[in-house]
Amino acid sequence: LFYKREPGYGVLCRLEEAGHEAVFVGGAVRDHLLNREATDIDIATSAEPEEVKKVFPHTFDVGIEHGTVLVVLKGEQVEVTTFRTDGKYTDHRRPDAVKFVKSLTEDLMRRDFTINALAMTKDGKLLDPFNGRLDMEKNLIRAVGDPVERFKEDALRMMRAIRFSSTLNFSIEKKTFQAIMSGGAQLSHVSVERLKLEFDKLFMGINPLNAFNYMEKSSLNLYLPLYPKDNTALIEILPFKSPKEGWAYLAIAGGFSTTNIVNAYKLSKQERKYISSVQDVYVRRLQNAYTIDDYYLFDIDVIKIAERIYNSFYKDEIAISEETIEMNKNSLRIHSIADISVDGTDLLDWTGLSGGRWTGEWISKIEKAVLYGDCQNEISSIKEWFINEFNSKR
Ligand code: ATP
Ligand code: MG
């Protein structure tokens, strides 16, 4: 049972024993009712942060100014947040100040959507002042209160609504959707880091197409840093196996350079490397089919997603199947320079020369020779090839 799940259950019990009110809240309750694995467990409590810290020996002040304390119990972590209301949002993203309150209903009122404004006691009793359960049965994302006001407070909520349309495969309720349609310009108040995280989740959701459709129908895409003009091919590419695949898709579909997309969404170094590789493979594919070098240089996942993207754009071309890609990759004679049976010291032995830049250069030549089958990947064969080439180049 959800409410017996450690460590959240233990945290609730201890807070209650200490005389405080405490409940599971937000996404954890939503995902539990939907029979989905929750990504994180949130607990809301009437106890103020200092009181929470008295109940538990191990805590961290992760967001104490917003009332959040990270409790570590039996090696696991739970965020415990004091019931609060948010003050004014003059900057359209963060409340100027938060006020701790004693009523759970007031706390639930500040939450974005009815399906996220649910709470559950440790005994499994649902607290649902905004009929989130009913919206859940109708597969609806509906703002708590007036959506226009709620999006004015925090514009990220528009992006969250669209992200949930992918992760939950829900529809966006009409008034909530209209508020996105009219409020898009406010997205400029949201940091790209937060937008990026929503995209990561959107890509990995069960219905990204739903989100792309809402994005375009609401025109929210017009206020994003970068967004492709045409996403009709997306259906052929899905599902994405990682958020990185989604970013590579956005780059290629939009005709954006790696640098542009990386800068626009502040992507990481690893994401940059991955996207740039997919773009490279894609360009090679435009020129002709993959060569031995391509199979050698690029990770198999990079080649697969590049091929999926290519096929979605060039439907009348014959696709290179995943099996073929795997076969070609597996049948390479070597997979990296570490696989070569000789190294620099062998070259010194064979030539009687002392080391220098030339050894590295010849190891690269040997790498190519082995890769292309000009010699076998065994010492005698490499030596024979090397002596021959080396002498003829002297
Ligand atoms: P996920 O499954 O991605 O974790 P989530 O709904 O749990 O989605 P969190 O960021 O973990 O999202 O936030 C937990 C809860 O906090 C939400 O369910 C919601 O009640 C509330 N919340 C989060 N972000 C906002 C926001 N921008 N505005 C209002 N309430 C929010
Ligand atoms: Mg969550």
Automatic annotation (TrEMBL):
<keyword id="KW-0460">Magnesium</keyword>
<feature type="binding site">
    <location>
        <position position="154"/>
    </location>
    <ligand>
        <name>ATP</name>
    </ligand>
</feature>
<feature type="binding site">
    <location>
        <position position="163"/>
    </location>
    <ligand>
        <name>ATP</name>
    </ligand>
</feature>
<comment type="function">
    <text>Catalyzes the addition and repair of the essential 3'-terminal CCA sequence in tRNAs without using a nucleic acid template. Adds these three nucleotides in the order of C, C, and A to the tRNA nucleotide-73, using CTP and ATP as substrates and producing inorganic pyrophosphate. tRNA 3'-terminal CCA addition is required both for tRNA processing and repair. Also involved in tRNA surveillance by mediating tandem CCA addition to generate a CCACCA at the 3' terminus of unstable tRNAs. While stable tRNAs receive only 3'-terminal CCA, unstable tRNAs are marked with CCACCA and rapidly degraded.</text>
</comment>
<dbReference type="Pfam" id="PF01743">
    <property type="entry name" value="PolyA_pol"/>
</dbReference>
<feature type="binding site">
    <location>
        <position position="42"/>
    </location>
    <ligand>
        <name>Mg(2+)</name>
    </ligand>
</feature>
<dbReference type="InterPro" id="IPR050264">
    <property type="entry name" value="Bact_CCA-adding_enz_type3_sf"/>
</dbReference>
<feature type="binding site">
    <location>
        <position position="27"/>
    </location>
    <ligand>
        <name>CTP</name>
    </ligand>
</feature>
<dbReference type="InterPro" id="IPR032810">
    <property type="entry name" value="CCA-adding_enz_C"/>
</dbReference>
<comment type="similarity">
    <text>Belongs to the tRNA nucleotidyltransferase/poly(A) polymerase family. Bacterial CCA-adding enzyme type 3 subfamily.</text>
</comment>
<keyword id="KW-0808">Transferase</keyword>
<feature type="domain" description="tRNA nucleotidyltransferase/poly(A) polymerase RNA and SrmB- binding">
    <location>
        <begin position="169"/>
        <end position="223"/>
    </location>
</feature>
<feature type="binding site">
    <location>
        <position position="154"/>
    </location>
    <ligand>
        <name>CTP</name>
    </ligand>
</feature>
<comment type="subunit">
    <text>Homodimer.</text>
</comment>
<dbReference type="InterPro" id="IPR043519">
    <property type="entry name" value="NT_sf"/>
</dbReference>
<keyword id="KW-0692">RNA repair</keyword>
<dbReference type="InterPro" id="IPR032828">
    <property type="entry name" value="PolyA_RNA-bd"/>
</dbReference>
<feature type="binding site">
    <location>
        <position position="160"/>
    </location>
    <ligand>
        <name>ATP</name>
    </ligand>
</feature>
<feature type="binding site">
    <location>
        <position position="163"/>
    </location>
    <ligand>
        <name>CTP</name>
    </ligand>
</feature>
<dbReference type="InterPro" id="IPR023068">
    <property type="entry name" value="CCA-adding_enz_firmicutes"/>
</dbReference>
<feature type="binding site">
    <location>
        <position position="111"/>
    </location>
    <ligand>
        <name>ATP</name>
    </ligand>
</feature>
<feature type="binding site">
    <location>
        <position position="30"/>
    </location>
    <ligand>
        <name>ATP</name>
    </ligand>
</feature>
<protein>
    <recommendedName>
        <fullName>CCA-adding enzyme</fullName>
        <ecNumber>2.7.7.72</ecNumber>
    </recommendedName>
</protein>
<keyword id="KW-0548">Nucleotidyltransferase</keyword>
<dbReference type="InterPro" id="IPR002646">
    <property type="entry name" value="PolA_pol_head_dom"/>
</dbReference>
<feature type="binding site">
    <location>
        <position position="157"/>
    </location>
    <ligand>
        <name>ATP</name>
    </ligand>
</feature>
<keyword id="KW-0819">tRNA processing</keyword>
<feature type="domain" description="Poly A polymerase head">
    <location>
        <begin position="24"/>
        <end position="142"/>
    </location>
</feature>
<feature type="binding site">
    <location>
        <position position="157"/>
    </location>
    <ligand>
        <name>CTP</name>
    </ligand>
</feature>
<feature type="binding site">
    <location>
        <position position="30"/>
    </location>
    <ligand>
        <name>CTP</name>
    </ligand>
</feature>
<feature type="binding site">
    <location>
        <position position="111"/>
    </location>
    <ligand>
        <name>CTP</name>
    </ligand>
</feature>
<keyword id="KW-0067">ATP-binding</keyword>
<feature type="binding site">
    <location>
        <position position="27"/>
    </location>
    <ligand>
        <name>ATP</name>
    </ligand>
</feature>
<dbReference type="GO" id="GO:0004810">
    <property type="term" value="F:CCA tRNA nucleotidyltransferase activity"/>
</dbReference>
<feature type="binding site">
    <location>
        <position position="160"/>
    </location>
    <ligand>
        <name>CTP</name>
    </ligand>
</feature>
<dbReference type="Pfam" id="PF13735">
    <property type="entry name" value="tRNA_NucTran2_2"/>
</dbReference>
<keyword id="KW-0547">Nucleotide-binding</keyword>
<keyword id="KW-0694">RNA-binding</keyword>
<feature type="domain" description="CCA-adding enzyme C-terminal">
    <location>
        <begin position="240"/>
        <end position="385"/>
    </location>
</feature>
<dbReference type="Pfam" id="PF12627">
    <property type="entry name" value="PolyA_pol_RNAbd"/>
</dbReference>
<feature type="binding site">
    <location>
        <position position="40"/>
    </location>
    <ligand>
        <name>Mg(2+)</name>
    </ligand>
</feature>
<keyword id="KW-0479">Metal-binding</keyword>
